[in-house]
Design a protein that fits this description.
- The chain has a single domain, classed as SMI1/KNR4-like.
- Helices cover 26% and strands 26% of the residues.
- It is built from four helices and nine strands, in the order βααββββαββββα.
- The strands form three sheets. A five-stranded antiparallel beta sheet has the order 5-6-7-8-9. It has a two-stranded antiparallel sheet with strand order 1-2. It has a two-stranded antiparallel sheet with strand order 3-4.
- The radius of gyration is 14 Å and the shape is globular.
- The chain starts with a strand and ends with a helix.
- InterPro entries: Knr4/Smi1-like_dom, Knr4/Smi1-like_sf.
- Residues 11-134 form the Knr4/Smi1-like domain.
- Pfam families: SMI1_KNR4 (PF09346).
């Protein structure tokens, strides 16, 4: 997998700050990606949900508060429309978000696609972040 359009360097402190702010434990693989490719777009960048095929990842949201459109900003914009336990970590081209969903498991979140165009519906993507990354084509 290749990555394009990376933002400023993220640190372990940035990851810890996200975990502390949202009271969560981020997946290890996600942390590695953030440290190596902060706020970047994966190539290839398509993924499927259990309902539809061919969604595209526009970018992984930055975790640094120095970057606009970071995880904190996006969460603040849409938090009233998300279900409890959901944290956005990537966006698509249409203003939708790929989210961690900690509702069922605080240690290993599932991955869901939040579709704002269909009354804030959630579509299952993967049972783990690692599985999500392996499913990108």
């Amino acid at each position: 997998m290749q990555w394009q359009f990376a933002k400023s360097i993220a640190t372990v402190y940035d990851l810890w700050a996200v975990e502390s702010h949202f009271n969560i434990k981020l997946p290890v693989v996600y942390g590695r990606i953030v440290l190596e490719h902060h706020g970047a777009r994966p190539i290839p960048n398509q993924f499927d949900t259990y309902k539809r095929m061919g969604h595209r990842i526009k970018t992984f949201l930055p975790v640094s508060k120095k970057e606009k459109g970071n995880v904190y900003d996006v969460y603040a914009w849409i938090q009233t429309r998300l279900q409890p336990g959901m944290i956005p970590f990537a966006s698509d081209d249409g203003g939708n978000y790929i989210c961690f969903d900690y509702k069922g498991n605080e240690q290993e979140p599932i991955i869901v696609f939040w579709n704002h165009e269909v009354e804030d519906t959630m579509e299952m993507v993967s049972s783990s972040f690692e599985g999500f990354m392996k499913s990108i084509y």
